[in-house]
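#onboarding

Welcome to the new folks! Below is a worked example of what a typical request in this channel looks like: someone posts a single protein sequence, and someone else replies with the predicted structure as tokens. Don't worry about understanding the tokens yet, we'll cover that in week two.

Example request:
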Amino acid sequence: MKHILLILSVLIFSTSLLADNYMDLMCEFEGENPEDKFGKSMCSLDFNGDTIDDLIVGTPYYGPGGQGGRVYFYLGGDDFAEGPSFTMTGDSDNLIDIQIRALGDMNNDGYDDLVVPNYNHTINSFEFLILLGGADPDTIADYAFIPGDERLSNLPDFNGLGDVNNDGYDDAGTTNLEGCYYILWGGDTLHLELFHEFDVDIGRDIDGIGDVNDDGFDDIEIGLWYEYQTGSHRYWDLLFYGGDPPDTLYAVILADTVSPSFMGGRPTGDVNDDGYDDFYSCVGHSVGLWLGREVISPQPHVYLDHEGVGGISDYGDFNNDGYSDAALGNPSWGWYDGRVHIILGGTYINGAVDLFLDAPEISICFGGSIAVGDFNNDGFDDVAVGAPGYSSHPSFHGKVYVYAGNDSLTVGVDDPDIPDITGTGLMHAYPNPFSSEIHFHLNVRSLRELTIQIYNVKGQLIETVDVQDRDMTWQANDNPSGAYFCKLMYKNEVLEVAKVILVKQ
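Example response:
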């Protein structure tokens, strides 16, 4: 009976932490036509240079018979909720808006820039249209690029990379899906250049993840499939450090798996305000959070124990506390109702969800796209959530819901009295939270005289485990649910501390 009451008290406590947080629905926008799938892609940027974030929303199937596509520009400000300021519409020869992306300020003129993919029937190929921002922005493409100058029958990603070579101009990246990766270098004139070619059949993603080692150059994550046995493939995520020029030899293998939860890396900003940018990436079926360091570990510092999140995400500061927060979409949750997980930054990060945004309707793929920005200029970043499966009639008009950031959002599982987490990458504890046992992977050369000390939240030592192997397991046994701190020790020296959460079922 005591065990049942303990579980109930933990669940009630956890629920109350989530219930204290909220984000009010600020406004919503709906697609114009049946089958539009409005909100299938989104991004935020300052397109007109007024220091207020703008929301760009796409509907890929706009037009007769789903031909053409349309991009909606909602300029931020007091009248943000009133509707789009202008639109960009394709036609039967040019099918725009399959994945729109913000690129940063590529020509360093004070205005953020945008890429809009387009299928050009005249040349039977996908191409990337670059729209440069301005005080009075228009929808006329300033550049059109095709990676490798070859016909593209499938659409690769085209993503902002930040300032990779620290020349004051933001850069972008793409691939031809056949092992060649390109950087679109920012400057007074933009130019596309081959960055690296892999001897593989399938190239996938190139993503900017921020300056994760704080050396002044933004860094790159590349994903690709390679053949390791006849007829079989594995997926690699590789970290490349930026530089002038950037290093073409990868620094770290972040993932080597047959079943990635998603492909490529996702920037998160500085979640613990230590001066290093942080990022998410896949670890098999799981999602890991890497905290920035001078040298990046191949193992994440934190695992997110939440199935289906990670690939669709954006970040900002929702409660204006100086820590970067993340919104991660799971559009397939609950028979495709969808859900968004809000994870707030703080000094100590354990990957727990601080707020769920649940779908207002059923089967709408809520979280199918996410864009974060301070659209109403109140000092708090807001979260726009795309629901391309929304149907006001028996069709898929699509809808976008915008939730307002506020100062009530607090980290429900943070504790200012817990010991500092060093984050050296020597010890990885997973899964976290856990229900009965937790596993440790040690990234060390020697196991001699190493121990793992387990402390409860009161700072009491409850168990010492002698390290016999680089992969170990601790059984929680009769220990109650709550937070525990696992110290990797060499003699009397603390090498690393991992905070873990036990929730017994």
